[in-house]
Amino acid sequence: MSEAVHGGPTGHGARGTEFSGDEEGGEPAPQLLPLDAWHRRRGARMVAFAGYEMPIQYDGIMAEHLWTRGHAGLFDVSHMGQMLFTGEGADRALEAVLPGDVTGLSVNRMRYSLLLADNGGILDDLMVTRREDGVYVVVNGATKYDDVVYLLDHMPDEVTINLMEDQALLALQGPRAVDALARLVPGVEALVFMAAGAFEWRGFPLWISRSGYTGEDGFEISVPADAVEAFADALIAEPEVKPIGLGARDSLRLEAGLPLYGHDLDSDTSPVMADLGFALSKRRREAGDFAGAPRILLEREQGAIVKRVGLIVEGRQPVREGAGVVDEETTEVGRVTSGGFAPSLGSSIAMAYVPTAMAVPGTVVTLAQRGKLHRATVTPMPFVPHNYVRAGAVK
Questions:
Q1: Does residue 77 contact residue 211 with C-beta atoms inside 8 Å?
Q2: Are 83 and 362 contacting, i.e. CB atoms less than 8 angstroms apart?
Q3: Torsion angle of the four alpha carbons 240, 220, 276, 313, in this order, in degrees rounded to the nearest 10
Q4: For the whole model, what pTM was predicted?
Q5: Cβ of 315: how many Cβ atoms within 10 Å?
Q6: Which of 17, 42, 121, 345 is deepest in the core (most CB within 10 A)?
C-alpha cells in the first residue's frame, strides 16, 4: 500500500530502511516490477536498472524504436517514483523547493520542474501535476528515495507525502497511441499535451496524462498494481501496440533531445548549463526565492561556462557517454554525456557539455573515444521534431 509520511525533520514518519541507501554488506538485490513475470513471458531480456530488474528489449532495440516512431510502444516505467502531496499549503511547500510556478498551476495541468541543491545543481528532474486531491509528482526511479528524504526535510508537518508504491506506471508512446488507448478508455483523446485527468477501466481508477519521454504523442498511465497486468494485456491486444524495452526508450529520448538524470544532469549541473531555463518561471526568477538562485540568476545574466549541446557525429560509429570533447592539442575541454546511433536518422548523435564559445550550431568539434578521434557538428535539439498534441490541435 502507499507509504504516508509527513514533513519535518528526517525520520518523522519515515519507517525503517524504506528510504535508506544500500543494505549492509553491499548493494541491495534489484526489486521486481509488478509486471516482471509478464515481461519474462514475452521474452524480454531483463537487466538491473535504477534498483529494479527491467526489460531492455524484446525484439531488438532498432525494431522497437522504429515501431514506436510509427505506431505505439508500451513502456513499463513503474520504477519511477509516484508521490501525492496533501495537506494545507502543499503547493506552497513544494514551490519552496522547486523553481517553477506550482501555486499557479490549474487543476489537471502539469509542469516540468527541477529539485535544486543550494549550490544551484540539479538533484532530480520531475513532473508536477495539480489534482483535485493534492499535488502529484513523478520523480526518477534511481533517485526517488533520496528525493523523499530531501523532501521530508523541507516539508512542514502539515504536508503528507504519499509514496504510491501500490501504483504501477505505464507509458504508451507513438502517433497511434491515442487510437489504441481511446478504444479502452474513451475520453483520453480530449487531453492535450501536459494535461491530465482521472479515468476508469473495468472499474479500476486510472490517472492519465498526455505526456512522455520519447518526443512522440503519448500518455503516461498510473494504474493500480493489481490491475496492471490485465490492463497491459488489453493494450497490447490493440493492433498498434507492442511492448518496448529500456533500450529503445533511451534512443528515443536521445533523438528527442531529452536529458537523462545521472547522465546529462547531476548535482553539479545548473539549469542554465543544461539548457533547461524554461523550467524557471518568470515569477520565481523575479523573486529569486528558490534554491541556488544566486548562481543560477548570475549564469542567466552572464552565461554559464559550459552548455549542453546536441552533436551529429560523422560516420555510423556511436560515440558513448564519457568520450571527451578535445581542442586542437587534444586537451579535454568537454564531455559527452549521452550518445548512440539514431535509428530515425541513420546516423550517430550525442549530447555533450562544451565551452559556451563552442556551443554555437554549426561548430565542428573533435571527440576522443578509446584512442580514436571523431568529428562532430553542434546542432540544435531535438534531433527529431517533437510530435506533441497541443491545445487547439487535438486529434
A1: no
A2: no
A3: -30
A4: 0.92
A5: 11
A6: 121
- Residues 250 and 346 reside in one and the same domain: no
Same domain? 251 vs 324: no
Angle among Cα 388, 391, 395 to the nearest 5 degrees reads 65
Q: Which regions of the chain are under pLDDT 50?
A: 1-3, 9-24, 394-395
| Same-domain pairing of 210 and 116 | yes
C-alpha cell at 44: 524480454
Q: Which among 152, 154, 51 has a CA at the least distance from the CA of 95?
A: 154
Question: Rounded to whole angstroms, how far apart are CA atoms 160 and 268?
Answer: 29
CA atoms within 13 A on the CB side of 201: 25
3-state helix, strand, coil in the chain (%, to 5): 25, 35, 45
CATH number of the domain encompassing residue 143 = 3.30.1360.120
Q: What is the CATH number of the domain that holds 352?
A: 2.40.30.110
Separation CA 151–CA 10 (nearest Å): 9
- Its domain, for residue 34, covers 3-255
- CA gap 219, 221 in Å, rounded: 6
The amino acid at 121: G
Query: Can you tell me which residue has the cell 497541443?
Result: 390
List the one residue out of 210, 218, 208 whose CA is nearest residue 174: 218
pLDDT, tens only, 191-237: 999 999 999 999 999 999 999 999 999 999 999 999 999 999 999 99
Examine residue 184 and state whether it is found in any structural domain, yes or no: yes
183 part of a folded domain: yes
> Are 207 and 309 in a shared domain?
no
Rounded Cα gap, residues 15 and 238, in angstroms: 42
Instruction: Specify if 281 maps to a domain.
Output: no
Closest alpha carbon to 175 in 344, 322, 11? 344
Considering only CA atoms, which of 361, 364, 357 is closest in space to residue 380? 361
Number of domains in the chain: 2
Q: Is residue 271 part of a domain?
A: no
Q: In a 3-state reduction of DSSP, which class is residue 94?
A: helix
Please report, for residues 3, 138, 170, the alpha-carbon distance to residue 222 in angstroms, rounded to integers and kept in the order given. Answer: 16, 10, 7
Helix crossing, 246-255 with 61-70: angle to 10°? 60
